[in-house]
Write a structure and sequence with these properties.
Number of strands: 16
Radius of gyration: 29 Å
CATH class of the largest domain: Alpha Beta
Strand content: 25-35%
Structural class: alpha+beta
Strand order of the largest sheet: 6-10-11-16-15-14-13-12
CATH superfamily of the largest domain: Bira Bifunctional Protein, Domain 2
RNA sequence: GCCCCCGUAGCUCAGUGGUUAGAGCGGCGGUCUUUUAAACCGCGCGGCGCGAGUUCGAUUCUCGCCGGGGGCACCA
């Protein structure tokens, strides 16, 4: 079969036809052709000339005429080819194309008897020969492995996939518009870091040859961004990849896209209202019509109340491992008795609360042990001013009033070092550069991290992160 | 890392311990100047993921490996 296509390629060249021309100027999107003739009656002709280009997706021959479907990013259009218009050579060569070939077509718009908007081809050009057969035209490409590993085939075969990644692009563009309009500066901080930090996760390690030194791929942008707040940039954001050395799951890809933004003189309540406005704006901009109600304001509930409601356990009335294990057992909940108190609280949250949070919900006020960079709560001892935001049974954002007291930050790092000594793998390494920056004086600041892949999952109604990442990490 | 499931034509799939493994789409040839999963006629384009074993005989049974999916663990 490849030989058929290569044979055609060779014959084209022998006849002086360039199978891979350099350009095709003047192409318009297929969607524009549809929009321009939306009101046309079946059987009606026009003089309107259009030039489109795309992949040949289907062909229906009728002897001295034929219908060809051409697909571009914006849609699909039918081309009507006629022997009497194109001439013997032009007509036969057009029918000799293979499905998957890239073609440019000039033609006039008309609506067929069956009411399909079409272009009556007056001329055409081969724009690139395809040497491999495309996926099947009716069922499309369904094999999951091929769809992920060879995304180009998925994109050409499955319109939903194309639409999804166009949606993703719109989500990201809308986020930038929203932040830019509010005076946030987009910045770029190091991906390769001598010390990782800003999240509780294990990093990937790499090596710089001429420096002779190991470096880490960042697990978060947090600490560098706050140094920019110290520097007086006041409102900054970074939208980019973080890398965490952890397993794959429907909600986790080892490299993922994170938005973090920081705002001087704001606290976590300001950030919460900004997040709900941002996401509501994005939902509107991309035309979201799913089951999640992004209309503001979103539900707000404290971590204590959320866990209490779902499990009957009051984590603030059981502030050590023993009493929390006992309280959970009293409610018939089995917990891992080897875990630390903050881990147990996290367990209760992620197993018993998170799955139930279908509609957007802020969970507020976390134990300090879980949050080494969040500022102590102004009225609740032992807690910090932090929220995580959930929707679709999944966390997609994490924010706090930033800790800006350098001495307390130093103490938090020391506590993390203590946990690390106890075998906690995801603790924070001590970052002296960061503490020193805080000593320079950081204004009161609110900050947040938003998982963009997860936000796209919500907007697209997908349950797997691999569906919304173009080239997901494969086993 | 663990558990379960899957791996047949370019694509979507069916199938059997036994003579030359099937269908649709795609491809090739033919009829057909408004069809649309076009239709109709003709042609199968594959040693059934890889390796070993059981068996007279394996695509089909067993084991291992590779690849994938789902779940768990990990993780936010």
């Amino acid at each position: 079969m490849d030989e058929d296509r290569r044979g055609k390629l060779q014959r084209l060249r022998e006849r002086g036809v360039e199978p891979f021309p350099h350009a095709f100027p003047g192409v318009g999107p297929i969607s524009v052709v549809h929009e321009a003739h939306a009101g046309l009656e079946a059987g009606e002709d026009t003089e309107a000339v259009h030039r489109v280009a795309g992949r040949l997706a289907a062909r229906r021959g009728h002897g001295k005429a034929a219908f060809l479907d051409v697909v571009d990013r914006s849609g699909r259009i039918q081309v009507h080819a006629r022997l009497d218009v194109l001439g013997q050579d032009g007509f036969e060569d057009l029918l000799g194309l293979d499905l998957g070939d890239l073609v440019g077509v000039d033609g006039t718009a008309f609506k067929s008897r069956r009411g399909e908007l079409s272009l009556k081809a007056t001329g055409w050009t081969l724009l690139a020969k395809s040497l491999l057969p495309p996926p099947e035209k009716f069922h499309g490409l369904e094999d999951v492995e091929t769809r992920y590993r060879r995304r180009e085939l998925d994109l050409m075969a499955n319109e939903e996939s194309r639409a999804l990644f166009i949606l993703r692009s719109k989500v990201v563009a809308a986020i930038r518009r929203w932040l830019d309009a509010r005076g946030f500066l987009e910045v770029e901080t190091p991906v390769l870091q001598p010390l990782y930090g800003g999240a509780l996760a294990r990093p990937f390690t790499t090596h710089h040859n001429s420096l002779g030194r190991d470096l880490y791929l960042r697990i978060a942008t947090e600490l560098y961004l706050k140094r920019l707040i110290v520097g007086g940039l006041e409102r900054v954001y970074e939208l980019g990849k973080d890398f965490r050395n952890e397993g794959l799951s429907p909600k986790h890809n080892p490299e993922f896209t994170m938005l973090e933004f920081y705002e001087a003189y704001a606290d976590y309540t300001d950030i919460a209202s900004e997040l709900e406005q941002l996401v509501a704006y994005v939902a509107t901009e991309v035309g979201y019509e799913g089951e999640i109600d992004f209309a503001t304001p979103w539900r707000r509930v404290t971590l204590r109340d959320a866990i209490l409601k779902e499990t009957g356990v009051d984590v603030l009335a059981a502030r050590d491992r023993g009493s929390l294990l006992a309280a959970a057992a009293g409610q018939g909940i089995e917990l891992d008795s080897t875990e630390t108190w903050p881990r147990l609280v996290d367990d209760l949250l992620s197993k018993h609360v998170e799955p139930k949070l279908a509609q957007p919900t802020f969970i507020l006020d976390y134990p300090v042990e879980l949050s080494p960079f969040a500022k102590a709560h102004r009225s609740e001892p032992g807690l910090v001013e932090r929220f995580e935001c959930f929707a679709g049974g999944m966390e997609f954002a994490n924010a706090f009033t930033e800790l800006n007291d350098p001495d307390e930050q130093r103490a938090r790092f020391e506590e993390q070092a203590r946990l690390s000594a106890q075998g906690e793998k995801e603790s924070q390494p001590y970052d002296e550069d960061y503490v020193r920056a805080l000593e320079q004086g950081m204004p009161p600041t609110g900050g947040i991290g938003v998982g963009i892949d997860r936000l796209v999952m919500l907007m697209a109604g997908r349950s797997s992160i691999r569906e919304v990442v173009l080239f997901p990490t494969m086993r």
